[in-house]
Amino acid sequence: MSSPERDFVTAHTDDLHADLDAWLRIPSISADPAHAPDVAASAEWLAAALRRTGFPTVEIWPTPGAPAVYAEWPAEEPGAPVALVYGHHDVQPVDPLELWEHPPFEPTRVEGPDGPELHARGAIDDKGNVAFHLLGIRAHLAATGRTSPAVTVKLLVEGEEESGSPHFAALLQARAERLRCDVVVVSDTGMAAPDVPSVVTAMRGLADAEITLRGPAVDLHSGSFGGAVPNPLHAMATLLAGLHDAEGRVTLPGFYDRVRPLSDRERELMGRVPFDEAAWLAGPAASRATAGEAGFSTLERVGARPTAEVNGMWGGYTGPGHKTIVPAEAHAKITFRLVADQVPADLGDQVRAWVAANTPDGIEADVHVPAGGVAPCASDIDHPAMTALLSSVAQAFDTDADQVLITREGGSGPEADLAGVLGAPLLFLGAGLPTDRIHSPNERVLLPMLYRGAEAAAHLWRELARVPFAAR
Amino acid sequence: MSSPERDFVTAHTDDLHADLDAWLRIPSISADPAHAPDVAASAEWLAAALRRTGFPTVEIWPTPGAPAVYAEWPAEEPGAPVALVYGHHDVQPVDPLELWEHPPFEPTRVEGPDGPELHARGAIDDKGNVAFHLLGIRAHLAATGRTSPAVTVKLLVEGEEESGSPHFAALLQARAERLRCDVVVVSDTGMAAPDVPSVVTAMRGLADAEITLRGPAVDLHSGSFGGAVPNPLHAMATLLAGLHDAEGRVTLPGFYDRVRPLSDRERELMGRVPFDEAAWLAGPAASRATAGEAGFSTLERVGARPTAEVNGMWGGYTGPGHKTIVPAEAHAKITFRLVADQVPADLGDQVRAWVAANTPDGIEADVHVPAGGVAPCASDIDHPAMTALLSSVAQAFDTDADQVLITREGGSGPEADLAGVLGAPLLFLGAGLPTDRIHSPNERVLLPMLYRGAEAAAHLWRELARVPFAAR
């Protein structure tokens, strides 16, 4: 199914290669203060590229941390829908450097089994995902013969996503009027496999807790007191052993109360996503078995179900040899991944109630659940904007909209803030793959996926113009 | 009941004070290599003090670690019984230093509710217990008008007890001929309370294990893998939560098979030991409740029953904030206190079998149980030497021998080696109290207990001369 959009993209892939190559050479690592000038240079590069693409308004928005880039290209038609693209221009650190096959900031083309790949830090997360929009909007204009897009396209590309977006919510609130939109298009995710058109429909939220159990006032001689007073390490082991029941369900009271169940359609579409569990286990996981909540597939467990994971546990003597003590304290750190419509702020009471109900006599518990957390977010798969997205992706993959599968992203990001502050539905359009090694050495992007991303974006601006968004 | 022994002790307490004060100023911490010269100085000080006391033979015995002190004062009578006193001149580390009310190596006299106390590291464990023998043997000679003791008195005071006596068994074997004796008098324990004459009749043994559980090859992103692969911290919590059953019994297979039950007489004598559980909890334990094996009293739990104590547990992220990982590994250290007739060498198989039976799919376990350990030991409470000890303690407390209660020491030491290598029965004569905070900040000795220890020792040399030991 050729299309003017595809023809334009195919004829201009060199532009995409040149843009991405130049941008990826800027080591915009937001976590490392030494790279702050690079993050600033990355914002400047993007701003210049957006101006060159034709965006009439391009601004760099400072924050107390790294700068964000904002651009706007209004549709000529009064009342045309407004779409806001979200992405980020900062990248993860590169250590361990010795595991990279090519220098992380010298983009290197490699012929892979699924087509040409480009290896570099940020190749897909998230510079590749942002860069395809530069070509996509040009394809949209060329294919439709327009001089401005059929919907008003805004872009907000932040510089601190890999550092937890500490100033993003405040930026959204401060700039809410400028950012007003009918729909948010998040370009920071991917698809299930190279030949499998799919869209992400949700991201998980996050909350964390730290638990301290205290027994005796000081470490005690285990010969004099052991076996006769409560040991906080025993209490912590028992507490954490009970964090999940025999079915792998989290035992916090009320934990599942607000969980929006997967619809039959979602489960059916997720169930069709090809997934090689053995390869997944043997891959980056290097894990020996699956485990988790009974009644759910691995993809559902990591994407669509809330989880509780003990991330750290410590107490007593941890040096060489042995020390015969009943320790005074035990500690644990737990993070919870949340799904719509769980509320991070609920976790404080849930964790405290759970700890209180499971702390034995003679042990005092201290629970710290920081305010905040990350809210989960989900697309409404029945929204007409979702229909436009599915149609756009289907065209880029030469298939029908009902052949586009859905996946869920297990990680957490600032997307819920976008939906919450701006009051707009979320769509996810990304060109990444589970095999792209984001956050790891040898991150790469499959170039044909970027071309499809650009084409899907070109279709999307056309399709969204027909969506009857509610009046703002 | 005045006695010449008591009169002498009472007239010479200043000698004991002066000796102890000088010795306690030497920070003989065997665990810290930086203090090796102090441990050597401690041995030299004791050797000089023993010569000054009158021991005709005093030697410093080197070991591959810290030196031991040996002294011998033969009885004039051919065939007189031979008693070997055991103690140690090294002390525990002092951290956390900020919790000491007085500098740990500046002995400080404090008036307490039960009489004058001396605060210092080693005040009772074990310099106080050894020092009372310097005065005790003088009191014995003065009271009996002898120029040599009624039994041959040997002393062996080692320098590595607080480091697990790693070279002690070899020293005993190498010097077995010199150490030949009819009875061993261990002076490294204590009594039930200031006004309660009692003797220890057993010490527990010790074995230790370190367990590592491994899941994924590297720490994994909890958003991508959490809830779908086994978490070694969850597995460790579940494993350790099952170390004890609902009755507080250790669940290792075969753990109780060789345990010698308490006799009715022992339970009766132990049951008469006054024990203020609330005060015990409020004391050095500063613990909030008792806990332990069902069907046994607190004193039985800490003295007469075997236990398993998790001393340390660690894995994953333990720094500030949170880190969203499924960690690769979890670790735990466990020590087991053993009672007669358990065998430390049995624990390796028991721990391995228990871990193997409780490790979930996808987790690999590595169990390290060092060879060795410490054997438990027990006195024969019907031996005539025990009668002599009970009589001596009774006299020091102005009471009758059948009023002397028995207790059991929950800790572990090289005493089993003494009994095993030297083939002699064990007696325990010590002046410590459960409230002395040994191994903790503000260790102290109650000075009137030391005077009673000296008097009991003086009586003991006289009483033991009458015991018909079997021919060697």
UniProtKB/TrEMBL annotation, chains A, B:
Organism: Goekera deserti
GO biological process, one term: proteolysis
Domain Peptidase M20 dimerisation: 202-361
Cited Pfam families: M20_dimer, Peptidase_M20
Full protein name: M20 family dipeptidase
Gene Ontology MF terms in the entry: metal ion binding; peptidase activity
UniProt xrefs under Gene3D superfamilies: 3.30.70.360, Zn peptidases (3.40.630.10)
Parts forming coiled coils: none
Alphabetical UniProt keywords: Hydrolase, Metal-binding, Protease
